[in-house]
Design goal:
By secondary structure, this protein is mainly alpha-helical. The chain has three domains: about 1-70; about 80-310 and about 325-450, no CATH class; about 455-560, D-Maltodextrin-Binding Protein, domain 2, CATH 3.40.190. The chain has helices spanning about 10-15, 20-30, 30-40, 45-70, 90-105, 115-125, 130-135, 145-155, 165-185, 190-200, 205-210, 215-235, 240-255, 260-275, 280-285, 285-305, 310-315, 330-345, 350-370, 370-390, 405-420, 425-450, 455-465, 475-485, 500-505, 520-525, 525-530, and strands spanning about 1-5, 80, 470-475, 495, 510-515, 540-545, 550-560. The radius of gyration is 26 Å and the shape is globular.
Length: about 575
């Protein structure tokens, strides 16, 4: 370790103090009314919402400026700089090759059909101006940072639908590099390189990198932010720069998806649990990590402030109030997680179960190596799970994708540990060969990720081709919403009401039913769903999907068959 005990000169602080003064004056002088008018928020936003948001913006920016001014003048000891093994030219070449492979796998077939969540982004938020995107929040489907970057990509491409996935692709490739960078902080060069390679050829990572949502951005920011936080906790490097870097990264993560705030909560708990608060030196060492957490909170409020009143209103709404839903329970999450993992790993369920055992060995190994590192990696996962369960929020497995890199590292470590237990002849080489074989097998599963996420167009074209005069077509629930947004089926009946189905059965020669996401439909209309499952309706076609439950099911009822 290289010790740097000298106090950081205040010269940098005085120079940087100019920007906080400018930011503070801009916040004070910002006109509320005209700014609210210029933002031009839409959908469910009221003028009172936006005016309140501008006031919050003024206070948040002014407070952040004061904190920045104080930090710029705060002297500190830079601490010890850990000497890490130098990265060789070969390593840079290997990382570059992995990144190029990852980019190619994620660009191929990026133009497959958009699915429901992506269509909501494309048709509801991309048309908005950026000033509206930063001040409008009518649904949790709006992930502000991703919506903004997608609009920019959409405009740059000349309006191509595939372009809304481009930010996910680029951040996905960036997260592969971040995986390698983070791995270099906490483990050996071999494990770091293999973890990046495994992420590059992962079915799930490719799938999310071609999904126009912000989950690869969450992964990218979680890896980078966690790496900086571990360095802060260990007193490794310039704490002021690390704290600002952490604050910016985690604010961007939360601006992408609100659940990223729980990552920061996990980091705060990790600091709380590992700091010996009775020792003065330990308390001093915890100051900068605590400052970093506070900065992330302040910067997050600054980013969200124009829409913050709307955010509070939306997130406080219960999920499908009055409807019994399965996807808020732990048992459903476990089943869905096992299903998702089985679909994307070589060997299916058997491999998924074995991987969990190997993962446990890896977590124990990391715990023995460093408690703070282990808690920073995995405590946010537990905090997210407990919070979502406690609030009865949807427990979609994708909410935990931010931890994919940490899980890969732990599984790799577990594999290396087990090989060292079982193999006496060059165990490191055997472990590397085994991990490389797993990567090749994983690569074979990637083509599944290129299949259509949902086939709304194919289902529409099939029905239009097969329907006859006198037939009625009814799209239910989510399918109804999507076809209405797309505007493809002006003479279809778009509804969730059983009465519409009853009337069609009485008056139409044949009644066609189109639906997707059966768990949701069953929760909303259990009696209707049960009726659709009887012999009254014939399953004509099921259009496959890679989204869980996203298959498009086409049913038909023929009033002339006497099956009423």
């Amino acid at each position: 370790m290289v010790d740097a005990n000298a106090v950081e000169p205040a010269r940098w602080g005085r120079g940087a103090g100019f920007l906080p003064v400018v930011a503070f004056l801009a916040a004070v002088l910002l006109p509320v009314g005209s700014t609210a008018t210029w933002l031009n928020a839409t959908y469910s936003a009221t003028r009172a919402d936006v005016v309140a948001g501008v006031w919050i913006l003024k206070v948040a920016v002014a407070t952040t400026a004061l904190v920045a001014w104080w930090l710029a003048r705060r002297t500190y000891s830079p601490g010890s700089i850990v000497e890490r093994p130098r990265t060789s030219t070969r390593d840079f070449v290997l990382v570059g090759a992995v990144l190029l492979l990852g980019l190619g796998l994620r660009l191929y077939r990026i133009d497959t059909e958009l699915w429901i969540d992506e269509l909501m982004l494309r048709l509801r938020y991309i048309p908005l101006e950026i000033r509206q995107l930063v001040s409008t929040y009518d649904s949790q489907n709006h992930q502000p940072l991703y919506s903004i970057t997608s609009r920019l990509a959409f405009m740059a491409s000349g309006g191509s639908d595939w372009s809304v996935r481009l930010p996910a692709v680029l951040m996905g490739v960036g997260s592969i590099w971040a995986m390698w960078w983070f791995g270099r902080q906490v483990t050996s060069a071999a494990e770091a390189m293999l973890s990046a390679a495994l992420l590059a050829v992962s079915y799930h990572h490719v799938w999310f990198s071609q999904n126009a949502r912000g989950y690869t951005a969450m992964l990218l920011f979680a890896l980078l932010g966690s790496g900086l936080f571990i360095r802060l906790c260990n007193g490794d490097g310039n704490p002021r720069r690390l704290a600002w870097g952490y604050g910016v990264l985690m604010a961007l993560a939360t601006y992408t998806h609100l659940t990223s705030a729980l990552i920061v909560v996990g980091h705060a708990l990790a600091l709380l649990f590992t700091t010996r608060w009775s020792v003065k030196e330990r308390r001093r060492q915890a100051e900068w990590p605590a400052i970093a957490i506070a900065l992330s909170a302040l910067l997050t409020i600054c980013l969200y402030s124009p829409m913050l009143p709307q955010v509070v209103r939306e997130v406080s709404k219960p999920t499908m109030e009055g409807v019994a839903v399965a996807w808020t329970g732990i048992d459903w999450l476990v089943r869905e997680t096992v299903r998702v993992l089985s679909a994307g790993v070589p060997g299916g369920l058997v491999t998924a179960v074995a991987a969990i055992a190997v993962l446990a060995v890896g977590v124990v190994s990391y715990w023995r190596q460093s408690r703070i590192t282990t808690l920073v990696m995995f405590l946010p996962l537990l905090v997210t799970l407990v919070t979502l369960v406690a609030t009865r929020h949807n427990l979609w497995p994708r909410f935990f994708f931010f931890a994919a890199g940490f899980l890969v590292l732990a599984a790799l470590r577990g594999g290396f540990v087990l090989v060292h237990w079982l193999v006496r002849w060059r165990p490191d080489r055997v472990a590397i060969a085994g991990a490389s074989a797993v990567a090749l097998l994983s690569l074979a599963t990637v083509p599944r990720a290129w299949q259509p996420k949902m086939q709304l167009r194919a289902a529409y074209e099939f029905i239009e081709r097969e329907r006859q005069p006198g037939d009625a077509v009814i799209a239910l629930d989510s399918a109804s919403e999507m076809y209405q947004l797309l505007g493809w089926a002006p003479d279809w009946r778009l509804t969730t009401e059983s009465a519409v189905v009853d009337e069609a059965e009485r008056t139409a020669t044949r009644t066609w039913i189109v639906y997707t996401l059966p768990h949701r439909l069953e929760a909303l209309e259990p009696e209707l769903f049960q009726r659709l499952s009887t012999s009254r309706y014939q399953v004509v076609r099921v259009f496959s999907a890679t989204v869980g439950g996203g298959e498009i099911t086409v049913l038909r009822h023929d009033s002339t068959t006497g099956n009423d």
